[in-house]
Amino acid sequence: MMERLQKVLAKAGIASRRKAEELIIEGKVTVNGQVVSALGTKVDVSKDKIRVEGRPVRQAEERVYLLLNKPAGYVSTLNDPQGRPKVTDLLKGVGQRVFPVGRLDYATEGLLLLSNDGDFAYRLTHPKHGVEKVYLALVSGIPDKNKIQALRRGVQLEDGVTAPAGVRVLARMEGEALLEIRLHEGRNRQVRRMCESIGHPVLKLQRTALGRLTLRGVPLGSYRPLTGQEVRELLEKSRVNSQERKKRG
Ligand code: URA
Known about the structure:
The chain is of the alpha+beta class and 249 residues long. It folds into two domains: 2-56, RNA-binding S4 domain (Structural Genomics Hypothetical 15.5 Kd Protein In mrcA-pckA Intergenic Region, Chain A); 65-222, Pseudouridine synthase. Helix content is 25%, strand content 30%. Strands 7, 8, 9, 10, 13, 14, 15, 16 and 17 form a nine-stranded mixed beta sheet that branches. The radius of gyration is 24 Å and the shape is elongated. Bound molecules: uracil (URA). Uracil is lined by residues 104-105, 108, 189-192, 205.
């Protein structure tokens, strides 16, 4: 894509648009080895070699934030030793390299964020930050009141007791129950391990929400970009949660 040189410099974080214009007029900018001092010269960042005072200008990669409705049968890691299908195989036409923000198991369906913004990923997956995640779990058998209460209060897992969780029984069926589980933690295989610990293993698992984000309008196997407002809200929420946690000690 052809863009004005001063805009390219500004986007790369070299200087403000006005300062970038000054650098160009002062003859400090070269394109493919030639000084370009005319404002408005158009360049193609994917092909042209741009330097400011001899230093190469690297284009800041555009930030991408996607919400994917992950089907079962995909891994949410980028390298799978077993060579199984990857969630990134589902992203057609996304120019940037994105990576999953957090994980869903191979067999788990539902809401998974992907981004190329490492800071965003760090903040959202940090155990301290805990944006609420909502899961629907179909479990084997029908857990009684005491077991549901145990899930809510916290159960002992290999890696420690789980934090308080929201748990509701949405449906009781023949030999199976549908639970809604709300977590602020995000340990590996946490929902499966919690349900196993009360003797009701998970048969099917779906993540339906993360903070205020839901799967509405995103069919299984499809994705949509987050809006700027959604990204800001998630970052804000993760910051607030970590502050509350600090206050509570
Ligand atoms: N908990 C699980 O057990 N699996 C997931 O994929 C997500 C949460």
